[in-house]
Amino acid sequence: MKSSFSKLPIHRDELAKIKQKALRHRIWFKVLSKIERIQIDLTIRLVERVKSSYLAKVLFAVVKKLFDALESPVKRLMREVGAKLAYKISQVGKRLGHKSAEKWAEDQGFIQFLTVTYMNAPVLYK
């Protein structure tokens, strides 16, 4: 994933939009350290398009941190918990002879259902 990112051109405008979104959602100061904020700010001020692969890797780590913080808790849990639960249940379904059970692991509605059920389950069952 890092190598594909370094091939993409990073423009000043894109970084400015990400910064603006982070400020709007009030995570700019909560999530990023002072050094990370300075890295983004200086890149926006001084660089039109990032050409250095080293700078791109540094910025990628900071931007990824912001995107992770911007992601909703339900979507994060869908990715981390719901998808794994759906996969396990689909494997059990396959073993029981359900031919359509393979598709359950990719069904976003099923993954969301499992995630919301997980979120509302008592702590004792988690």
What do these coordinates show?
The chain is mostly helical and 126 residues long. It folds into two domains: 2-70, no CATH class; 74-125, no CATH class. Helix content is 71%, strand content 3%. The chain has a two-stranded antiparallel ribbon. Helix 2 crosses helix 4 and helix 6 packs across helix 7. The two termini are 32 Å apart. Residues 1-6 have low confidence and may be disordered.
User: Unreliable segments (pLDDT under 50, ≥5 consecutive)?
Assistant: 1-6
Give helix % range.
Answer: over 70%
**What is the terminal-to-terminal distance?**
32 Å
Domain count, please report it: 2
The count of helical stretches stands at 7
Q: Describe the sheet with the most strands.
A: 2 strands, antiparallel
SSE arrangement:
Blueprint: H1 2-7, E1 10-11, H2 12-24, H3 28-31, H4 34-46, E2 49-50, H5 53-70, H6 73-95, H7 108-120
Antiparallel strand pairs: 1-2
Helix pairs in contact: 2-4, 6-7
List keywords for this structure.
126 residues; mainly alpha; 2 domains; two-stranded antiparallel ribbon; 7 helices; 2 strands; 71% helix; disordered N terminus
Brief account:
With 126 residues, the protein is mostly helical. It has helices at 2-7, 12-24, 28-31, 34-46, 53-70, 73-95, 108-120, and strands at residues 10-11, 49-50. The two termini are 32 Å apart.
